[in-house]
Amino acid sequence: MVFRDSIIASIKMIAKNKMQSFLTMLGIVIGIMAVIIVMSLGASAQEFILGQIKSYGSNLIAILPGSSDDSGAPASAFGIITTSLKNKDIEDIINLHNPHIEGVSMYVKGSDVLSRNDKSLGVTFYGTTANYPEIENSELEKGRFFDSGEVDSNLAVVVLGSKVADELFGDDNPLGQKIKIKKSNFTIIGVLKSKGGNFIQDQDSQIFVPLKTAQNILLGINYIDFSRLRVDKTENIDIVREEIVGILRDNHNIDSGEKDDFSVRSVAQALEVISSVTDMLKFFLVAVSAISLIVGGFGIMNIMLAIIQERIKEIGLRKALGATSMDIVWQFLLETITITFISGVIGILLGILISFIAAQIIVALGYSWTFVISYDGILLGSMVSIFIGIIFGILPAFRASKLDPIEALRYE
Amino acid sequence: MLISVKNLKKDFKDGDMVTHVLRDIDFDIPKGEFVSIMGPSGSGKSTLMHILGFLDKPSSGKYIFEGNDVSDLSDTELARMRNQKVGFVFQSFNLLNRMTVLENVMLPLVYSKAFKGDKEERAKEILDQMGLSHRLEYLPNNISGGEKQRVAIARALVNNPEVIFADEPTGNLDSKSGFQVMKILQDLNNQGNTIILVTHEKITAEYASRIITIKDGVITDDSSVIKRQIASENEELIK
């Protein structure tokens, strides 16, 4: 009854002083709303980013030249050229015939400006192996990909990303046409299906030539930039990884105790790293919104002290009728919690609404964005609003309970 | 004996200044008596009522209630005594304006750990006795002064107290409502309730059967009322 009484009293109070209550609650409403929006958009963003990585398949392992510790990126990721990874290293891995390895691809990378008629287009070209489409989950729009025979015989053939084909050829059929890369003529044998860009790689605006052609003719190098392996099952990644590390250390004559001069990374690992980064970002943003909650909490405390001042006589009366000090503490604490909780619920609803609208706008802008209701956020929002009620309600409640009933009854 | 006060003193300290508000107070009140505590303002009568009503503690001396020494109870015990043993009727009614008449009367039951029945039924029963069944869902601001004081009396009675304290209960009422309130108090006394009325008016005090007169903190007179006022015989109520 004290419970119900306090809750009803505070709801009546809110209803009676609408403007005042609104302003009092605003800090908490905005704070909780911000938490919900951050959590919800954060969850969507995380899903978006992870979804893009997962589109490669989480069974991929990447081998990069240059050492790195587990959390950082290898030097090659920052554009520093390291020449230590050779074709032979990868061929040795292929020659293991490990049943868990479904395929291994190799890559070298360069860039050039392509031109046709009066159009020119800067592109990244990749020299790669014939199994590129299997490893990268890519499909052909038309034509075909080069085969391993073509790779070994340095043929000047090229497969275009869909965007490159569109830009340069428009409605014309590019198959069989010739195009100049680094002053050499290449015959177009295929066009890849559009995959959509992401922040890691945009296959649609790249072109692909046989690995050895790129190494020997276009770039004049004898190393590869990176290699990718597809493993049959995620749980076998670690076994395969260890085997690769062993071979590469052997090939590179690395003594035990010395650091690797290469990095073997799995997509699963990358997912973990990115998840932890986005999680941290999310919590940081939540912490920022928490400041608004603290400000709101002081607002609530201030108003509760004013309310108690207005109700001194009531407190005296309740004590005269037999309320103990603890009864009074509970009453005002519950009233404060009711106010902060109602604010929290309003904040949660507004937060969901705004996240939903934001998701609609992002989708309308053409991104594959899913609206995620963050249940963690809702739970957190509700708990935090109750917690704030307790923290900022306790002082006014104890102050009320300390009132002398005689003085309080006499108070006008 | 319901109430027994022996050599009771109350001092108020303000810095080095000590004011003796009550000195050498001695009296007994048996169960079922209607007593007035009369005195001018500043005489100490309110302080005496606060001590008797468990709102305050004596500085020294003994307060025996139902045979138990209650001179030095803890705050929580005092709250329980106020809730279970006494009912207050105030000059300014002290109803909570945002609660209905019914909710106001139920309030003491909210704080009662002893009461096990249906709180609403109990409150309705008492309000019915006060002739207020038609006002249950009214807010105090929408009823008359006389009705407010009857609600306050109902609230004082709802926990079946041993003693009812009425502090200038007619002070804010017109004369007719005042007589009605005094009639209710006399009726309650006739039904066996102990009533302690605090007033500064001799004529009001004479509704009781005994008057304890207090002045400057000491009892100057303690005697039975020879010609008692009977509210039900008052011409304003009869016509």
What is the percent of helical residues of chain B? Answer: 25-40%
Query: How many angstroms does the end-to-end distance of chain A come to?
Result: 28 Å
Q: Biggest sheet of chain B: strands, sense, closure?
A: 6 strands, mixed
Percent of residues in beta strands of chain B: 25-35%
In round numbers, the mean pLDDT of chain B is: 92
State the order of secondary-structure elements of chain A, H for helix, E for strand. Answer: HHEHEEHEHEHEEEHEHEHHHHH
Can you count the beta strands of chain B? 10
How many β strands of chain A by DSSP? 10
The chain pair with the largest interface is:
A-B, 23 and 24 residues
**Distinct helical segment count of chain B:** 8
What's the arrangement of secondary structure elements?
The complex is a heterodimer of chains A (412) and B (239).
Chain A: H1 2-16, H2 18-54, E1 60-65, H3 87-95, E2 101-116, E3 119-128, H4 132-136, E4 140-143, H5 148-152, E5 157-160, H6 162-169, E6 178-181, E7 184-192, E8 206-210, H7 211-219, E9 226-231, H8 237-251, E10 262-266, H9 267-310, H10 312-320, H11 325-364, H12 375-401, H13 405-410
Helix pairs in contact in A: 1-2, 1-11, 2-9, 2-11, 2-12, 9-11, 9-12, 11-12
Chain B: E1 3-14, E2 17-29, E3 34-38, H1 45-52, E4 60-65, E5 68-69, H2 75-85, E6 86-89, H3 101-110, H4 119-129, H5 145-157, E7 163-167, H6 175-190, E8 194-199, H7 202-205, E9 210-215, E10 218-224, H8 235-238
